[in-house]
Amino acid sequence: MHLLDFGAQTDKGAIRALNEDSILAVPPVFVVADGVGGSDGGEVASALVVEEFGELARRPVIDADGVREAIEKANTRVRALHGDQLHGASSTAVGAVGVMSEDEPYWVVFNIGDSRIYRLPALAPDDEPDRSRELVQISVDHSHVQELVDAGVITAEEAETHPDRNLVTRAVGGEETAEADFWMIPMVPGDRWLICSDGLLADLSLEAVQDRVRQPTSADETARDLIAMALRAAVSDNVSAIVIDVVGSSEHSDAVEPTTVQPHPGK
User: Fold this and answer.
1) Tens digit of each residue's pLDDT (9 = 90 or more) over 183-236
2) Domain spans of the chain?
3) Which side of the chain, N or C, has fewer Cβ within a 10 Å radius?
C-alpha cells in the first residue's frame, strides 16, 4: 500500500446552527457523509455512516466486500431510526478505501447521494511541471437535477442554481437496499484526491476549488484553505473536505500516522 498524506476538515457553515456532516479520515479509509432529515436526524444518520466505516478501518484486512458491507450495515441502522421519531433521516456517503488486489494497491471509490469525489491526476513523466491538471469528478450525483441534465432538460450550468438542486434520489437509509455506485481505481503516486459534501460547491465555483487544489501545498493546508474559502463566501450549507495525496511506496518512506479529525474553528 502506498503512503498517504491527508487533511480533513468540516464546518457548520456561515448560516446553519447544526453540522449534519460527518467525516472519517483513518488511512486507508476516507469518508464524507452529509445527513438529511431535519432536526437532529441528519446528524445522527451521517454519524452512523462514519461509525460503520470506522469499524471497517479497524479490520486487519480491508477489501471491496467490506466496503459494501459497511454501507449495508449503515443503511440498516439509519432505517432503524425511522421508528424513533426521526422519520426520513438519511445521509449521503462518498469515499475512497485503499485495498490490495492481486498484490497491487487500489482505491475502492463509492458514492450514494450528491456528495462528490474528485481526482487530480499525477503528472506524467513527460509532462511539463506547470501543466494545468484538471479535477476529474469520479462520483455520479444521485440527484433530481442530475436526472434533468441527463435527460437534456437543463444544462449542467442551470443545475447549479436550480431550486431543486438539493433533492437527492438515493441516500443511506432511503430505501431497504442502499444503491451505491462503486469503482476500482489504481492507487497512483502523485495523485491528489478531494472528497467533499455538496456544501463546498454551494457558493464556490469548481474553477476556484480546482485552482486551490492544484497548488503544491500539503493536503492538510489545502483542506483547511478550502473550508476557509467556503466560509468567506458565506456558505449556506455545512461544508466538509478531505484531501488525500498518494505519496509513494511504503518501502521507501516513513509511515504517515493517522490523525484525529477536528472540526474547523467556528463549528
Assistant:
1) 999 999 999 999 999 999 999 999 999 999 999 999 999 999 999 999 999 998
2) 2-249
3) C
Residues in the chain: 267
> Ramachandran region of residue 62, left (φ > 0), alpha (ψ -120 to 50) or beta?
beta
Interatomic CA distance for residues 138 and 122, integer angstroms: 15
Name, in order, each residue with C-beta under 8 angstroms of 35's C-beta and a sequence gap of 6 or more. Answer: 20, 21, 22, 41, 42, 43, 44, 45, 46, 47, 89, 90, 91, 92
Asked if 209 and 135 count as a contact pair (C-beta separation under 8 A), the reply is yes
The answer to whether the CB of 8 falls within 8 A of the CB of 261 is yes
Phi-psi region of 248 (alpha: psi -120 to 50; beta: other; left: phi over 0): left
pTM confidence score? 0.89
Q: Looking at the domain 2-249, which fold is it? A: Phosphatase 2c; domain 1 (3.60.40)
- Rounded Cα distance, 258 and 267, in Å: 22
What distance in Å separates the CA atoms of residue 253 and residue 167, rounded to the nearest whole number?
44
